[in-house]
Each structure stands twice: as structure tokens, then as C-alpha cells.
Amino acid sequence: MFGYIDISRNTISEEDKKLYQSYYCGLCKAIGKKSQVFRMGLNNDLAFLAVLLSSVSEEEPKIKENQTCIAHRIKKHDEIIFDSVMDYTADMNILLVYLKICDDAADTKGISKNILKKMLKRSVEDVVSVYGNLGDYIKDKLSRLDELEKEKSGSIDETADCFAKITEAVFAPDFIKDENTKKILSWMGYNLGRWIYIVDAYDDLEKDRKSGNYNPFICAGEDNSPELKKTTYDALVQTLTNAANAYDLLTVYRNDTLLKNILYNGLFGKMNSIFTGMEENNEPI
């Protein structure tokens, strides 16, 4: 479900592309300090969150230049160092990946996910102790989402709402002290989470039909008709417009062109590629 938020590689400047990579690499290193395993769960959605939270802080992030890592032993890169933002986003990556593994383990008869769940539990304990209430909230929403899936709910609004409330909470950390900024970030998070869930469900429609996996569109008796495509696309455009309008209300201290590339070009481009079949070049950088 994660991984739909990304830059538009066709329209981004080389400067912003390098900047985005420095955030991605900085976040990856921050996760690695806590758990090497969870670095494999890093995705562009969390990288976007790191860029966004950094951008609304008056504090200037630091840049570590010419760094190397396991994945890039020869090619050097820069890394953003911003303890409050990177530590929080790294923790959210760990928590969300772990809870997804727990959710998968509950749904499968195999033992691999359950073994992985037990192996990783220790790495998550510190995160849960710091973000206990948030962890409980996310688990509650995932549990409700699981119930809806088992009930074969055909309500895309209700299922998307469960996921959107998770991203709503994650996008507004406690270290953001200005209440107006938190409200705006929450609304952005809600709409982006809703967009992710719906675009993922539509993207997987035919695949889920063949595999028999749960999909709210299928449970509602929908097929991939022109009517469904139009109504879903229109709803997604409105949801992205809500997120973009919320962004315009924020006081942003840096990374404005990068964030706009993602919000205005990357997300709309990704959505259009799914609905038209014309895939933009969104390969990992």
C-alpha cells in the first residue's frame, strides 16, 4: 500500500533531485541506527514526510557531504541530519512496517511472517515505549480495517477512512508546537492517506480479482468500467486538491520547489499513469 508518494522525475530539477536523495539517505541512516532490518522497509512516503516536517521547522537541518553506505560503497552522496525529524520519521517507519507485518501474520497460515514478527519485536519495543498512545491508535485503526476486510466491506469510503486516520496522526508529531501547523499537517496527512488507499485499491483491482484478495471495489460489485474510472479519478483529484490546498496554508522555510514537485507533479503523474496506463519513469533513484 505504501510507495505511491514520489517525485516526478520528468519535471524535477537536478538540484531538487539531489536534495531529495539526501533526505532519503539521511532517513535510511537514521533507521539503521535503530535497526538494520527495518531499512529494507523504507519507502518514498516516509521520505516525503521527512522533507515535509523539516520544511515547517525554523531550525536549519545539517548536511553531511560525500558519505558512503552499504548500498552505495563507491558512489558518494549527501545526507540530511535533523535529529528531531529524522528520529521521529525513522521510528514511524519501524512502527508502521512492524504493524503491517503483524497484520500480515494474523492473516496468513504460514509461519514465515510470524517468525519475522517475533524476530523484530525487540527492535520495536523502544519505539512503542516512546509512542505508546500513537502505537495503540494505529493498531486500533488497523484492527478496524482488518474487521472491514473480513466483513468483505464494499465501502471504499469507510475502509479508506481507517487508513487516512493513521496518516493523519503520523503527519502531526508532538514536536510540532504550533497548533495551527499541526492542524494543517493533520489534514494533509488525512487526505494523502485517503488518496493512497483508494489509488492502491483501484491499481490492484484486476490483480485482486484474479487472486481473490480483498478489494472494496470488488466487494461493492464494481468492475473496471468507464463509470468507475471517472468517479474514482474525480474523487482522487479532489482529495489531492485538498492536500495541495492545505500545503499552501503552511509556513514553509525550505524545500518548497521539491515539495511542490511531489504534490503537484509526482502524485498527479502517478495517478494519471495508473488511470491512463502511461507509466511515468518513477524508478528508484
Tell me what you see in this structure.
- The chain is mainly alpha-helical and 285 residues long.
- It is 67% helix and 4% strand.
- It has eleven helices and two strands, in the order ααββααααααααα.
- It has helices at residues 14-32, 44-55, 83-107, 112-130, 132-150, 156-170, 179-203, 205-211, 216-219, 226-249, 256-276; strands at residues 62-67, 77-81.
- Strands 1-2 form a two-stranded antiparallel ribbon.
- Helix 3 (83-107) packs antiparallel against helix 4 (112-130), helix 3 runs parallel beside helix 5 and helix 5 packs antiparallel against helix 6.
- The radius of gyration is 19 Å and the shape is globular.
- The two termini are 20 Å apart.
Brief overview:
By secondary structure, this protein is mainly alpha-helical. The chain is built from 11 helices and 2 strands; from the N terminus they run H-H-E-E-H-H-H-H-H-H-H-H-H.
Mean pLDDT: 86
Number of helices, counting only DSSP H or I runs of 4 residues or more: 11
First-last Cα distance? 20 Å
User: Low-confidence segments, ≥5 residues, pLDDT <50?
Assistant: 281-285
How would a textbook summarize the main sheet?
2 strands, antiparallel
Adjacency order of strands in the biggest sheet: 1-2
Secondary structural class: mainly alpha
Q: What letter string, H or E per element, gives the SSE order?
A: HHEEHHHHHHHHH
The Rg value, from CA coordinates, equals 19 Å
From the spread of the alpha carbons, the general shape counts as globular
Percent helix, as a range, is 55-70%
Number of strands: 2
Tell me the fraction of residues in β-strands, as a range: under 5%
